[in-house]
Design a protein that fits this description.
The structure holds two protein chains of two kinds.
Chain A lengths: L1 H16 L8 E12 L2 E11 L1 H8 L12 H16 L5 E5 L2 E2 L6 E8 L2 E15 L3 E6 L6 E5 L5 E4 L6 E5 L6 H8 L21 E6 L3
Parallel strand pairs in A: 1-8, 1-9
Antiparallel strand pairs in A: 1-2, 2-6, 3-4, 3-7, 5-6, 7-11, 10-11
Chain B lengths: L1 H26 L23 H24 L6 H18 L3 H13 L3 H29 L4 H32 L18 H7 L6 H15 L18 H4 L5 H12 L4 H12 L3 H36 L4 H31 L2
The chains are: A alpha+beta, B mainly alpha.
Amino acid sequence: MARIRQGALALIAFLIAGPALAHPHVFVTAKAEMVFSGGQLTAVRHIWQFDEAFSAYAIQGLDANNDGALTRAELAPLAQVNVDSLADYGFFTWLSVDGEQVAFAAPSDYFLDIYHGQLTLFFTLPLAIPAPIIRTATLDVFDPEYFVAYEFVTDAPITLVDPPLRCSSLFYPPPFLDPATAMALAAIPADERILPADLAGAAADLANTIVVTCGG
Amino acid sequence: MRRLKHRRLALARAALAVAGIAVATAAAAQGPFGITMPEAGASPAAGGLFGPIFAQIGAWQTQFYSALTDALGAMRENGSAFFVLAGMSFLYGIFHAAGPGHGKAVISAYLLASGETLRRGVLIAFASAFVQALVAIILVSIAAGILRVTAVTMNEATRVLEIGSYALIVVVGLWLLVTRVRGPGHVHDHGIAAALPAGGSGGRRLATPIHAVGPLRAERVATRDDGRRTAHDHGAGGTAHLHAPDPALLRRPMTLRGAWTAILAVGIRPCSGALIVLVFAMAQGLYAAGIASTLVMAVGTALTVSLLASIAVLARDTAIRLTRGRSRRVAIALRAIEIAAAATVLVFGALLLGGVLWA
């Protein structure tokens, strides 16, 4: 009898916990900039272009003058809602410099615009305290719940603005994009991954990872 | 001792899972962009043995969704893209429901707790999927089509429906728990007289006509059971006088009203994907295609939820069949499963509701 109960409980736990599955309803094509000043990393800039369907959903009812075009001014309230809400999600941005997690200040210079019919969000995340990169910095951009699917552009996914000469960047797309690669990577021990330890685990497979190397 | 430990472990895991969802929900009240919300229960990847399989399901789902929205876009130039749209909607529905979400968890737990038959379980799964589709269609038709609201307003409407959905889950859980705990009388040993009638309860229940529902049906089953028993005659009395721990009675089907409450609890919160597809279709001037896509999606979703719910029901029925002849212990075990499932629905609903109200 205990087995029936146990089985039922396990089944319930399985159904509720839900496997790792996800259902993205928002697709973002992204690119990022890391901004330096005086040799220190000062900010991360994001450019996120939303997919056509989500764009149509997001802009419904906003064309106040019905001219079929949306200006930055018409989109400003939505941009405000976007960054306010993103704060609850840590802006889907995780940065560590030389192994230390770095905090961000409130976002600045945010606005929405439309390019090729697709809504595009621009915003800057200043570092709470500018940080010099002695060896490496790691920037992860992803939604661990995978409601939002991030895909970085292949052409220049990351730009370093005014970096120290010794710094260079590399972009690692999430293995999830290619199921075959995902399978192969799943067999690799976690400690061989280029991911911060605090993000280790399956969720981190979704991360778009940018590694900036400045020495060491 | 070991069994007890296992059970505790399973309980602890269930509790952890529920708590995890509540935390995720609390942080996600308005969604990451403030205009569309992830479904509660969409927890982060669990990894483990099945990680790669789930990653594969997720990848397929993503592809079908992209293909679906692409097909909608393509219909502007080419009407025959509708068939691609329908096909992708169907596949997306199937894989979407294989993902996380409170819907199928509530339906499965409801079926375990209420003792619904397999066939009614499938009907409930289909009804909830179609209610969900219809709610999305009605919401978009009124909010976007007539009132021309913004996405922020539509999100607020979704939030109200979501709160209603979670409140109904609490109601269903509470009601299940009260009826399960109160049960059809006390349990004591009747020896051979209490043994299951020939044929086993599982088989008989599956053969019960689908239109015979509600208290009426419970009475009929009770009457028939008692009629078959010569050694232990209770007459055709009401359930209050029954004290045989007969699993068939413990698992008497719930009322139609109960089933509809569960269906609405799951269905009135529209899926973000359906809302986006509908608004997108409307913006393209292809609203009819969007409605068709949403309904086809519901068929796919219903199939997956039916499958998962059937597994739950069949697993229990099989367990009962295997342990036939030990009716008292079966009855107690069943009672425990039902109470656990009812409590799960209640706790689940309470956490979801708390998460969305106090976020």
